[in-house]
Amino acid sequence: MNQTGERLQKLLAAAGLGSRREIEGWISAGRVAVNGKPVELGQRVDSLEGITIDGKPLRRTTSAPALPRVVVYNKPEGEICSRKDPEGRPSVFEQLPRLRDGRWVLVGRLDLNTAGLLLATDHGELANRLMHPGYGIEREYLVRVNGEVDEAMLARLRKGVQLDDGMAAFDAIAERGGSGRNRWFSVVLREGRNREVRRLWEAEGCTVSRLKRVRFGPVFLGPRDLRGSWRDLDEAGIRQLFALVDLAMPAPATEAKPVSDGPAGRKRSTRAGAGAGRPRSGPRRAQ
Asked: Whole-prediction pTM value?
């Protein structure tokens, strides 16, 4: 086995096919082959030459973009962060712009009833590192809480509360208005456990009636980020994210890229969007 190349799942993630975890699942399921032979998890390769996914080869291109793409999307409530849903609920992937090559990988998820900032990128390794708890990237939320909140409760939420999957705490809490039993707070976390913000407040006997993510690391929602709209992050912002997770920016090259439809059975969005690497001139939908 090649011991000097790059791990295949990392190489495919960098090509924008998906996150490393998802691609590891494809490898374990026997969907990925090199020169016609199924690969093993952790196998190293020197290039994307001869790789197939579900029997479809990766094609070569001489127009690889100089920069990966990162999109900032202001998710409304009522949209899911999955590509398919048996209940037919709208998906955030239906709202994102179309990619010429590769596919969008979400940087974390927001549940159905949570709104706000969602990052999507065509660079799987960037997404993987941004989500990794080891980098401790801050997520900031604006939350409306129903219940009796006092200073002792806020102190417990900062120090740590026992949840069913371990201790959890807010890194910061600041009151943002309201009165009586309905008050607004901004809270900051450094991890992305499922429904963690809601569960922390619920552990203290409170109910979250509104929840919106307003920041992920150095990326903020701005006043022009209307609900349901997306924008391309500029080059400075992209470079800042790469530096944040100690990842080198890829250089332009004539390298293999995934087939445009990705693995078999994947459908692309039918909505019109900006071309790869070209900022959108306006919002998709007014608030």
From this structure: 0.68
